[in-house]
Specification:
Helix content is about 60%, strand content about 10%. By secondary structure, the chain is α/β, with parallel strands linked by helices. The protein folds into three domains: about 150 residues, Glutamyl-tRNA reductase, N-terminal domain (Beta Polymerase, domain 2, 2-Layer Sandwich), CATH 3.30.460; about 140 residues, 3-Layer(aba) Sandwich (Rossmann fold); about 90 residues, no CATH class.
Amino acid sequence: MKFIAYGLNHVTAPLPVREKYALEPEKVREVLARLKSHSPEAVFLSTCNRVEFYLATQSPEDCLGEIRKVLGQYHRLKPAEVKKYFYFYEGTEAFKHLFRVASSLDSMVVGEAQILGQVKDAYQESQEAGMTGATLNGVFHRAFGAAKRVRTQTEIARMPVSVSSVAVDLARKIFSALPEHPVLLLGAGEMGELTAKYLADAGVKDFFIANRTLEKAQALAERLGGKALALSEGFSRIGEVDILLTSLGGSSFALKRGDLEAALKNRKGRSLFIIDMGVPRNIDPEVGRLESVYLYNVDNLSAIAEANRSGRQKAVEEAEEILKEEVDKLCAWLSARELAPTIVRLREHFEVIRETKLKEFFERNKDLPEKERKAVERLTHDLIGRLLHDPSVNLKEIPNEADRFDYARMLNEIFLNKDHFKNDRD
C-alpha cells in the first residue's frame, strides 16, 4: 500500500486558484466515494491556504487521474493548470509533508493553531464516510501526536512574528481577560485595521471605529461588529476604552501628553494599552511616561517581532527534529507491517520459480538417477537460500526506519506480483 499526498497550497497557487479547487462540504463525501475504487483510504483537506488529498492506494496514477477528472468536472479546469499548481509526494516524503502541515510548519503563519483542528476535522469526515483503514488511521494519529509534541515541547506557537500579532500578544499579557476590554481605533490605516482584526480573532467584541471619513469607519465597523464614530467623537471616547489603536495620517502628534492626562482622569488607575501604528507617529512619546499607560509604536513592535523571528527559527529547527523522530517511528511501525511479510513472500515467490524450473528440468531429463535428482534439488534450494540471505539480513539492519520502509516497499514493487500483493494486503 502506497501513501501519497497530492494538492496545492499558498506557496504553489495564488488565492484565485485555491478558491477554484475548494469543495463545498456536501461535495467532499461525493469525491471520496468516487476515489474509493482507486484508493480504499482517502482524506480530503480543504482550508483557505491549501487543498490536499492524502491517499493509501496501490495505484497512485489511477487515483491522480480520477482526482483530476473530478476537479475538472466541478470547476472545468484544464489539465495543464492542474499540473502547474499541484505537488505530489509519496512514501516518507508524503509522511513528512502531512506531519509538517499538522504541526503548522507548512502554514502561511508558522505556529498558528487552527490547522491541527482542520486536519482532525478532515480525518473525521473521512472516518465517517468509511474511507480510513489501518494505514491512514495509523498515519494520521501519529501526525496528531507529532503536532502535540511540537506545540508542547517548542516555543513555535508562543512567538508572534508580525507587528499586529505582537501587539495582540502584548495585550494578552496586560489584560488577562482580553475579550472583556473595549477597543478604540482612531483612523483606518492598513496596519491599524489588521491589528483590530487580530484583536477580534482573539475574542474582543467591543469596538469603536473613528475616522475622518465616517463611511469608511462604518464599513470597518460592520466587518468587526463594532460602532462607527466621527473622528472628533472618537477622541472623546479615549477614557472609556482599555486598548487604543491609532492609524492616522499627518505630520504632527495627534495626541500629546496633556490630551491623554485629561482623558485618563476618571479611570481610577485602569491600564490603557496604546498601539501607535502611525508613520509618522500619532502619539507623543511622553504619553508613555504616564502611570498605567503602556505605549508601543511600530518600531517597538517590529523589534520584538524580529527578536521573535530569531527565536522562532530555533523553535522551527527543534520542531523539524521532533518531526524526523516521529516520521521514523511511523516508518518503524509500517516497516514492521511490511518487512516480515515481504521477506516471507519473497521466499515463497522464489520457491515457486525454483519448483517450476525443476519440474521442467526433470521432465526433460527423465532418466536422471534419483541421487542426482536429489542433489539438484538440494543445490537449487541452497542457492535460493543463499541468494536471499544477505538481502534479508541487510534489510533488517538498515538503521534508518524510513529507508527500511521504502526498501521493503520497493522489493514488493520489483519482485512480487502486484495483484497477489494487493489481495494479500486487502
